[in-house]
Specification:
about 900 residues, seven-stranded parallel β-sheet, 31 helices, membrane, nucleotide-binding, metal ion binding, ATP binding, translocase
């Protein structure tokens, strides 16, 4: 092209800035350490006051009423623009100083390409830098520049080991320039976390940052919170975190009160159900379910299961129930959902591919294998009963289902940052998704040395057996030539199969998969040696650097063999990228069969018939443009499907996100507010308004108002002994409200005088927090239930997302109403007492279910409430209480709070 690609033109625009930085290098290199440090202090003195001002504006905005927030937002945007301009002005000199500091502190100098990467990161974009091009060092440039504001910089990596390694490696550079640097690790306690977050630059994993955010919004005091805001983040391996991980929400959960016996019972009936597929139905031309000779159909593309009418009848008979699709009184749940999950566990989830059965502290347990990295994910559990279904299938102890207490997707977590940037070796294939979801542009950074890796065309075989035999033959030939070989597989099971074949041929090798992950560093260190044969799952794709032994370059470098195409082109590119790093020679080639999962599910069936007609022997590789195009088409198809899944997840989570923002903002106001009396009185006034509206209708004559019922309900909530005679003759809605509110205020004032203002303020805070958390937890449970069944609305020709938004809005309105009424009740009923009764209610009794993490272990720390202990008086009920989320006793099938509970 005459003018080059768009990417090349974008990079060309940055060259003058790079030249400016280079022009300062000679002058900067002559400065003493102290002068360099003083220069950085001068920059800090110019930038930090503006950062403090922005932080103050952000804090003030939380307290403002909605009507005033727009004006404050404009002021905030103007200050942010001024900060950006200031940072851009000092960028050349600041980058030159950081480069010099790196030379002196760790003996590394930033190349021009790393300077470009640093500029791109500062611009809030994604820098695609090839493997081995020094992303970790490039990140120090924009990290230092953005840390000058004092608002904190988060550098996010994929695992604890890389977070600690990168922090330890780069800390001398930061500390040389006067920046503090911390790291967040899985087992850290709250005090250490708070200290790390207080540093100018903090390293950690996406999980740790996300879970700390959720835990901070479950804390019962400001002192227990550890994070300090979302200023600027650099996400390493950004495609892995923002795309591959985006389908899995972060969840903190507590134990739900569901029995585990149900999973074993359902697992026992699955082998008695006969399988069919969507494809079978199409082939036979069957139009109606009742004619089918199977009990359920599976769709391998979408990993979905559907019971046929025959299957429904059979399952009902085997379980002894009347209707699978109605809540069963014995189990308190819809059995059809559990049957679907049990079938999915048997059909789509395989041991040594999707999970391992490992020995844990309490016996055998299921540990998930990350499909993209091949690493084990201890502590993570599949949701919606799927994990329990897999446990039942494998015959290990079944753990209780968890109830969500706090949740957020990584997509919405990272969108909270004022500025988001990222770096990876493979981003350009997902450019559209980064732009649409995160508003992130991708810049492809040129390599420092020209890449000379040889990428051979795919060798395609008809059968898997022929493919693996060809792989073994290739390894044998390369082994004789003493070249190091890295063989990539998609699963533990495949890597073990290949290992067995190599043992039979007498070829020494090492295996790197989830079973042997402890030896990862040792195995990778040896992988570039002569005659080294390393079989690896996707684990070898990220955060590893295979260094070539002396003399290996002359042999042609590392030879990478892929034994199967991954769903994502990015994962294939990462495997290729293990060879030919930093301009070294290398070779990469994929061996594929028409029986591979990707080709079997998404590939064209025409290919198989063409190969049969051509009468090509099974052990002969096929090289045909049709096959290559089919592979590319299959990968794009899967990528589109996965993008749609992530997009849909975000659309649903955006509904929750708006609600979460309201609740967490209110929670922050409760924690940080000095006096909450006004908040409580406002809630009381709103609760009175709600009660009056349910009994007093302005559309009918005042003489027909149900004043008796109103006074009775008011007295149930407020201890004011309101006589309905006092409201007789009052014919205005507002007057009734004023009479009641005045009486409530009098009782409130008496209680405050008795307790003293200080204790009353603490009481208000505790009750508001306890009630808000309790209502929010119930709401999350209801939202989970709503999301679980909302897809069925599509059968009624209604858009499930629109229906979800409508019902979610109604449920949130109910939450707010319930919150106000509950606070109004408790504020008068709770008394200060020596017995630590309410302490257990607020914090969690050892006998009660405790919050546990959906994905990783909960951090240490305690929630002491020893200063104020409260007691709630109890009263006996004549009948058992119906839970708000339980089925309504009237038999409508709705939840109690949306049926008779709402009427009451």
């Amino acid at each position: 092209r005459v003018f080059g690609t768009q990417q090349e033109r974008n990079i060309k625009k940055l060259i003058p800035l790079v030249n400016k930085i280079n022009g300062l290098e000679k002058k900067t290199s002559k400065l003493s350490d102290k002068v360099l440090q003083r220069k950085m202090d001068e920059f800090r003195g110019r930038v930090k006051p503006l950062g403090v001002e922005i932080g103050q504006l952000e804090k003030e905005m939380l307290e403002l009423p909605e009507i005033e927030k727009e004006g404050a937002k404009i002021d905030l945007q103007e200050k942010a623009r001024q900060l950006d301009e200031l940072l851009y002005d000092i960028l050349p000199e600041a980058f030159a100083i950081v480069r010099e500091a790196a030379k002196r502190a760790i003996g590394l100098r930033h190349y021009d390409e790393q300077l470009i990467g640093g500029i791109v990161l500062h611009q809030g974009k994604i820098a695609e830098m090839a493997n081995g091009e020094g992303k970790t060092l490039a990140a120090t440039l924009s990290a230092c520049l953005n840390a000058l504001s004092g608002k904190g910089v988060h550098v996010v990596t994929v695992n604890d080991y890389l977070a600690r390694r990168d922090r330890d490696w780069m800390a001398p550079v930061y500390e040389f320039l006067g920046f503090s640097v911390g790291v967040i690790q899985n087992q850290m306690n709250s005090a250490d976390r708070r200290q790390s977050y207080g540093c100018d630059i903090t390293y950690g994993t996406n999980n740790e940052f996300g879970f700390d955010y959720l835990r901070d919004n479950m804390a019962v005091s400001v002192k227990e919170q550890v994070q300090r805001g979302f200023n600027y983040t650099i996400v390493d391996e950004v495609d892995s975190i923002l795309i591959d991980e985006a389908r899995t929400p972060l969840i903190i959960s507590g134990r739900a009160e569901k029995t585990t016996d149900l999973y074993s019972k359902i697992d026992r009936i699955v082998p008695r159900l006969k399988r069919g597929t969507e494809e079978d139905r199409v082939k036979r031309g069957i139009q109606e379910d009742k004619d089918e000779d199977c009990d359920y159909k599976i769709n391998e593309k979408d990993h979905t299961v559907a019971l046929t009418q025959r299957g429904i009848d059979k399952a009902e008979q085997l379980l002894g129930v009347k209707d699978l699709y109605q809540p069963d009184p014995r189990w308190g749940t819809v059995l059809a959902t559990h049957i679907n999950q049990a079938i999915r566990a048997h059909e789509f989830y395989e041991s040594d591919r999707d999970y391992l059965v490992k020995k844990g502290e309490n016996g055998k347990e299921i540990v998930i294998i990350d499909e993209f990295t091949g690493r084990l994910m201890p502590g993570r559990r599949w949701s919606d009963g799927l994990h329990q279904a897999v446990e039942a299938k494998e015959g290990v102890a079944i753990r209780n289902e968890n109830q969500t207490m706090a949740t957020i997707t990584l997509q919405n977590y990272f969108r909270m940052y004022n500025k988001l940037s990222g770096m990876t070796g493979t981003a350009i294939t997902e450019e559209d998704e980064f732009k649409k979801i995160y508003n992130l542009e991708v810049a492809v950074i040129p390599t420092h040395r020209p890449a000379i890796r040889e990428e051979l065309s795919d060798r395609v075989y008809q059968t898997e057996k022929a493919k693996f035999e060809a792989v073994i033959k290739e390894i044998k030939d390369l082994y004789k030539k003493e070249r190091p070989i890295l063989v990539g597989t998609r699963s533990v099971e495949r890597s073990e199969h290949l290992s067995k074949m190599l043992r039979e041929k007498g070829i020494p090798h090492t295996v790197l998969n989830a079973k042997y992950h402890e030896r990862e560093a040792q195995i990778v260190a040896q992988a570039g040696h002569r005659r080294a044969v390393t079989i690896a799952t996707n684990m070898a794709g990220r955060g590893t650097d295979i260094k070539l032994e002396e003399g290996v370059e002359e042999l042609g470098g590392l030879f990478v063999i892929g034994t199967e195409r991954h769903e994502s082109r990015r994962i294939d590119n990462q495997l290729r990228g293990r060879s030919g790093r930093q301009g070294a020679p290398g070779t990469a080639q994929f061996y594929v069969s028409l029986q591979d999962e990707l080709m079997r599910i998404f590939g064209s069936e025409r290919i198989g018939s063409i190969m049969e007609r051509l009468k090509i022997p099974q052990d002969q590789p096929i090289e045909h443009s049709l096959v290559t195009k089919a592979l590319e088409r299959a990968q794009r198809q899967v990528e589109r499907r996965n993008f749609d899944i992530r997009k849909q997840l975000l659309e649903y989570d955006d509904v929750m996100n708006k609600q979460r923002e309201v609740i967490y903002q209110e929670r922050r106001r409760i924690l940080e507010g000095k006096s909450l009396k006004g908040v409580v009185l406002e809630m009381i006034e709103d609760a009175i308004e709600q009660l009056i509206s349910s009994s007093v209708d302005d559309k009918i004559r005042p003489e027909d108002w149900d004043i008796k019922s109103l006074s009775k309900r008011i007295n149930q909530v407020f201890p004011i002994n309101l006589s309905y005679y006092s409201l007789e003759g009052v014919h205005k809605h507002e007057e009734i409200k004023n009479i009641i509110f005045q009486k409530v205020e009098e009782v409130y004032a008496k209680k405050e005088a008795r307790l003293t203002g200080e204790l009353m303020r603490e009481l208000e805070r505790r009750i508001l927090l306890h009630t808000l958390d309790s209502e929010w937890k119930d709401h999350l449970y209801s939202m989970d239930s709503l999301k679980e069944g909302i897809g069925l609305r599509g059968y009624g020709q209604r858009d499930p997302l629109i229906e979800y938004k409508k019902e979610a809005y109604d449920m949130f309105e109910d939450l707010i109403g319930g919150l106000k009424e509950e606070v109004s009740k408790l504020i008068f009923r709770v008394e200060i007492a020596k017995e630590p009764f309410l302490e257990r209610v607020l914090v969690g009794d050892p006998q009660m279910p405790q919050p546990t993490l959906g994905r990783i272990n909960q951090r240490g720390g305690n929630n002491n409430l020893n200063q104020v202990q409260m007691k709630i008086p109890t009263h006996k009920r004549s009948e058992s209480k119906v839970g708000r989320n339980n089925p309504c006793p009237c038999g409508s099938g709705k939840k109690y709070k949306y049926c008779c509970g709402r009427k009451q």
